[in-house]
């Protein structure tokens, strides 16, 4: 796993955006995987800037969100459909017909996951998956003890996750209890995975993900099995890493062509 430690969350977002944009260069119809949450917002803002400047064109790209709450109307401002529409589809000027979010209101919820997997496959698979991590180590909504080879399916949210997400709702009662989420096996299928995290409340999860054992108790640790996973964190989120000096040493010595940043992704 490649680990990049940045001074600030903004720099982490810029570097992550450059990595994402780099994966789109030369592809007629790149397929992007999107996460919700606060962490990737800096990535989306930077990508939107490049789109507005005409440096990046995502009008032919496909997009797949990681997850959705079960039972929440699309129109609810905190449905992940609405969040992706607001923070990704519109600012990145993507074709809304090509941006998909799991259907948390599907009549046949038991099959909605398999249907979503079929759509991802039909688009050719995800080229670059953007990820954040929950304070309990979840990615997507794969809560601790999720199968490491799980596919898109219904999951029950932990109380910890519901409390973390309460800030988007008026009360805890309004936070849904279930979700449809891509599985860890689905996420592993992406060609490239880029995870961003910031703040000291993520430090434990980040350390467990990168340096702990690969285990279902920290779902993010499954990325240790991914061939091209990059984790980009700020100093606070890196504060519990044992090998931070080594990660800095590696990054400082990267040849320029491998040090993809806002200045050289194109
Ligand atoms: C939610 C999402 C995850 C996201 C996590 C962390 O639970 N399902 O995809 O990574 O929140 O969110 P934040 O980046 O706001 O801390």
Point out poorly predicted stretches.
none
Fraction of residues in β-strands: 15-25%
The H-and-E topology, N to C, reads as EHEHEEHEHEEHEHEHEH
Give the terminus-to-terminus CA distance: 23 Å
Describe it for me?
The structure is a single chain. Helix 2 (41-52) links the parallel strand 2 and strand 3. The protein has 8 helices and 10 strands. A 7-stranded parallel sheet has the order 1-10-9-6-2-3-5. Strands 4-8-7 form a 3-stranded antiparallel sheet, covered by helices on one side. Helix content is 31%, strand content 16%. The protein is globular, with a radius of gyration of 17 Å. The two termini are 23 Å apart. The relative contact order is 0.19. It has helices spanning 9-24, 41-52, 80-89, 109-122, 159-165, 184-188, 203-211, 244-252, and strands at 2-6, 31-34, 62-65, 67-69, 99-100, 128-131, 153-156, 178-181, 192-197, 229-234. The protein is an alpha/beta fold and 266 residues long. It binds 2-amino-2-deoxy-6-O-phosphono-alpha-D-glucopyranose.
């Amino acid at each position: 796993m490649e680990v990049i430690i940045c001074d600030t969350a903004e720099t982490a977002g810029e570097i992550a955006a450059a990595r994402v944009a780099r994966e789109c260069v030369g592809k007629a119809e790149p397929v992007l995987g999107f996460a919700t949450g606060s962490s990737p917002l800096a990535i989306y803002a930077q990508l939107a800037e490049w789109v507005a400047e005409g440096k990046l064109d995502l009008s032919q790209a496909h997009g797949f969100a990681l997850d959705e709450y079960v039972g929440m109307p699309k129109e609810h401002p905190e449905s992940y459909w609405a969040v992706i529409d607001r923070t990704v589809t519109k600012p990145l000027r993507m074709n809304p017909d090509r941006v998909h979010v799991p259907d948390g209101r599907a009549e046949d919820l038991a099959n909605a996951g398999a249907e979503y997997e079929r759509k991802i496959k039909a688009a050719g698979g995800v080229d670059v998956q953007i990820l954040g991590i929950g304070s309990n180590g979840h990615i997507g909504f794969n809560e601790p003890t999720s199968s490491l080879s799980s596919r898109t399916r219904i999951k029950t949210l932990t109380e910890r996750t519901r409390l973390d997400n309460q800030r988007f709702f008026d009360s805890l009662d309004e936070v849904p209890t279930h979700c449809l989420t891509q599985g860890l096996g689905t996420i592993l299928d992406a060609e490239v995975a880029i995870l961003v995290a910031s703040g000291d409340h993520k430090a434990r999860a980040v350390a467990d993900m990168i340096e702990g054992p690969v285990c279902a108790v920290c779902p993010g640790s499954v990325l240790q099995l991914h061939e091209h996973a990059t984790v980009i964190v700020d100093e606070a989120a890196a504060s519990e890493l044992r090998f931070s000096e080594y990660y800095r040493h590696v990054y400082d010595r990267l040849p320029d062509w491998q040090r993809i940043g806002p200045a050289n992704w194109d």
